[in-house]
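Troubleshooting entry. Yesterday's outputs looked truncated, so today I'm pasting the complete records for two proteins to confirm everything comes through intact. If either block looks cut off, that's the bug. Protein one:
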Amino acid sequence: MPLVASPAYLHINYEGRRRTLLGQWQRSVMPFEMHQGYACLLDAAHQYQCRYWLIDTTRRAAGIDAADVFWMLDVFFPQLAPRLGGTAYLAFLMAPNQLAGVLATPAIPPLPAGQDLPYYLQRFTDEAAARLWLRKCARKARAQRVR
């Protein structure tokens, strides 16, 4: 599929065969740019009715700020299910040093686990592993609909 309209600091592409939305951050961003970029991702996902996202943050050299994480948890993630019509699955691709920084920052909460949330998140340092996780999530979601 063609590239989706997006700001210069974020490339968005819908991979129709894989039914995956790919968001690739091109540089570190200011909070307002991050908010704007995620709004563009959500608009594209809504356009394609895509609930499986691969978000590549490896080019965002700056560390992930706890305030940004809380904005995502409190403001952004709650918008996903109503706009997309179901549970969203987000695989975050990070550089190893980014992931280490996130895990070492006490102000950033661990990933939600075992909760009944309308989204699932996972962090990866390997794109193949991230894509495999998204495929498994899609298979599991299809199997649950069949029951």
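Protein two, checking that the full record survives here as well:
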Amino acid sequence: MTTDDAREPADDDGDAGGLGERERALLAVERRSWPGPGAKERAVREGLGLSPTRYYQLLNALLDDPRALAHDPVTVNRLRRVRAEKQGRR
């Protein structure tokens, strides 16, 4: 893991309170549809240089960031609903 991987999403270089490049890339991955199992994880490793585990850690933290909601409310609200449903089943 590089030092970039250890940073929290809010630490990325964003413009005037906006999201950083990596944060926007995380949300872009979630906006896409994936053809089959493993394709998304492969894209995360190759495109973002993150392990799937680290990707989901960063994504989960990003869902609680109001800047992410302002940037992509449809994706963030969908992911929040999915997360809440999973937590409700536990």
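Both blocks look complete. Sanity check on protein two: Residues 1-12 have pLDDT under 50 and may be disordered.
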